[in-house]
Design a protein that fits this description.
This protein is an all-alpha fold. The chain has one domain: Up-down Bundle (Sodium/glucose cotransporter). Helices cover about 75% and strands about 0% of the residues. It has 20 helices and no strands. α4 packs across α18, α9 crosses α16 and α10 crosses α14.
Length: about 475
């Protein structure tokens, strides 16, 4: 046990929980609880977007990817920029027509009530499954620190994060995100230089060794229509196309991100936040991939045994090799990423449950205060669901790729329906639902029975959803509900 490091960790956990709980007093309405009152500065929303798409999966998984491979993951990040251009052009103008709480209200405007329930329900399943993997990733870190079992580790973080999310709603989520993002990025920068100090020859030696092993390669332009091509997750084509489709789906159709965009005071501020977040993401992934390469050189030079799970490489090195209190600070930073993402997911799951399912169909008249209280307890219920899913996610090989794969299975169907609503007028609700279900079934088959890389999932799912819906619209005659 490293007493001072543990004290640093404890101080962080208590401090961030206390800080988040301070926003309880401002949570008077559902607009306050789910959208932060729509008066949050664009720069804070930008940092919150980064925190929401960053998690323990990113912090411990990205170094593991570079450790085993190279810098090819950055090809996916370049696709993220294309996605932001598409979202700001196609979706943002519609999201700021009227006052919307969730992304799926847009589907009701275009198609009808049933498609709203289907898309919202798909999000709930998708986010619960993917977030369950992320919650399990937290236990990897805490188990290394305390040597405890995975279940107590998960309980600790879930309960603390639940407390301030329960109390402070979206306002607490965004401002704790800002604090936590600066903490984990600062921790990563410190760890990079500390790890370099453990390597004789420093960065020059790292560059030489990594270059010789081809680990500094970013782009892979090979193109051939073979099974091996589609099995490579980090080629230029999979990265640009896959990253663009993945982020268009996650940031343009999933409540976890759309909720942040809707929290801005205007469409212009929302657009600023969206693009500013990309520059931070590019820097962040470059930083964590570089750490992975430096760790690879360190392991090679010292002939160390590689952990069975590469997700343990970064946190294990920090806790066993870095001095006090740096180890405690960086471990606190990793937990910061975990807590910020978990709080975002909890609030998004609660907002979709209340606004897309409960409130529209409730016959009982409730005050805003009663709805806020109901939203709080819905948040608690989702915390329990995520804990349960985390318990069955203990056998995944790579937490980062597993989380992205699970999300990508549903993203294609979601994005396909949203694009149908935005780009076509001939497709009605029933045809859209047929297309969405066909896309989802196919992606489940591909996930379980093929070696196609997850970076292609959203593109394939989107194409199948749209083409099937367009074909179905030739047979199914209906009112298209074009009201957007």
């Amino acid at each position: 046990m490293r007493t001072f490091d543990l004290a640093v960790l404890a101080a962080y956990l208590v401090g961030i929980t206390w800080f988040g709980a301070q926003f309880r007093g401002s949570q008077k309405t559902l607009k306050d609880y789910f959208l932060g009152g729509r008066d949050t500065p664009w720069w804070a929303i930008a940092f919150s977007i980064v925190s929401a798409e960053t998690s323990t999966l990113t912090v411990i998984g990205t170094p593991g990817i570079a450790f085993a491979g190279n810098l090819g993951f950055l090809q996916v990040v370049f696709g993220y920029l294309i996605a932001r251009i598409v979202i700001s052009t196609l979706f943002l103008p519609l999201y700021f027509k009227g006052e919307m709480f969730t992304a799926y209200e847009l589907m009701q405007r275009r198609f009808g009530h049933n498609i709203r329930k289907l898309t919202a329900g798909s999000f709930l399943v998708l986010r619960a499954m993917a977030e369950g993997v992320r919650v399990f990733a937290i236990s990897i870190v805490i188990t290394i620190i305390l040597g405890t079992g995975e279940i107590p580790s998960i309980i600790l973080i879930v309960c603390l994060t639940l407390f301030y999310t329960f109390e402070g709603g979206m306002t607490a989520v965004i401002w704790t995100d800002v604090v936590q993002m600066f903490l984990y990025v600062a921790g990563a920068i410190i760890s990079l230089f500390v790890i370099l100090n453990h390597i004789p020859g420093g960065f020059a030696h790292v560059w030489e060794a990594a270059s010789a092993a081809n680990k500094l390669q970013i782009f892979d332009f090979r193109f051939e229509l073979t099974p091996e091509f589609f099995a490579r997750p980090y080629s230029f084509w999979a990265g640009i196309l896959g990253g663009a489709f993945l982020t268009t789906a996650s940031h343009g159709t999933e409540q976890l991100m759309v909720q942040r965009l809707l929290a801005a005071g205007s469409e212009s501020d929302s657009r600023k936040a969206l693009f500013a977040s990309w520059f931070v993401i590019l820097f962040q992934f470059t930083l964590f991939l570089t750490i992975g390469i430096i760790l690879w050189v360190y392991y090679q030079d010292n002939h160390l045994a590689v952990p069975a799970k590469l997700d343990r490489v970064y946190p294990q090195f920090i806790w066993t090799s870095l001095p006090t209190p740096i180890a405690g600070l960086i471990m606190a930073a990793i937990l910061a990423a975990a807590m910020s993402n978990l709080s975002a997911a909890l609030n998004a799951l609660a907002s979709t449950t209340i606004m897309d399912f409960f409130k529209p169909y409730s016959k009982k008249v409730r005050t805003e205060e009663q709805y806020v209280q109901l939203a709080r307890w819905t948040t608690v219920a989702w915390g329990g669901v995520l804990f349960a899913i985390a318990l069955v996610a203990q056998n995944v090989k790579s937490v980062l790729e597993s989380g992205l794969s699970i999300a990508s299975i549903v993203y294609g169907s979601l994005l396909g329906v949203f694009l149908l609503g935005r780009l076509t007028t001939r497709v009605g609700e029933k045809a859209a639902m047929v297309g969405m279900l066909c896309g989802l079934v196919l992606m489940l088959y591909i996930y379980g029975n093929t070696k196609i890389a997850f970076t292609w999932y959203v593109l394939i799912g989107t194409a199948v959803t749209m083409s099937t819906a367009l074909l179905a619209s030739l047979v199914i005659k209906e009112d298209n509900f074009v009201r957007t």
